[in-house]
Amino acid sequence: MKSLQKRATVGVIVVLGVGLAFLLRNLGMGIGTGNGDDAGDLSNAQSNTSAVKVDIIGDAAPEMPTQPTFTDTKEEISPLPDTSQLATIIVEEKHYLLGTNSTPPKSVKKIVLADALEIITQTKGDKQGIRCRIFYLGSSLPSAETELNNQLKELGLEQSEIYIEQRTLELK
Asked: Which of 61, 110, 145, 151 has the fewest C-beta atoms under 10 angstroms from its C-beta?
């Protein structure tokens, strides 16, 4: 009777161990079972080491292609936003970025202050009469913010034509 209990106990422990091994393997721990493809296969182990040698040799002397190779991956080039009614300017450190008119805006390209002011002078204003939206990144410097505000006043923009976001913007 005791041997039957021992066998049953050992059987339960083995089943639990195998189940735990599969569970840990499925969770990405790599513990327990192998896939059986490389277990005890000497020829597979030799082919793995030769593949490593080839990779190392291949990295040491890369071949230069004779003709340029093109891939199907296309870089997304952000089109310039429509600034006929509204311009979005993002202040980053000492620099200015032209942003999209979406909420929250996305950076399109770096611009100098003179270009930003030129874009703003060509805007007509949206339905609320806002011609310029200004956003600040956490890295924006007060000198750049002050310079932009002073230049907008010199352009003759009314305070009601300028929307300044009080919270700092985080670009993704």
From this structure: 61
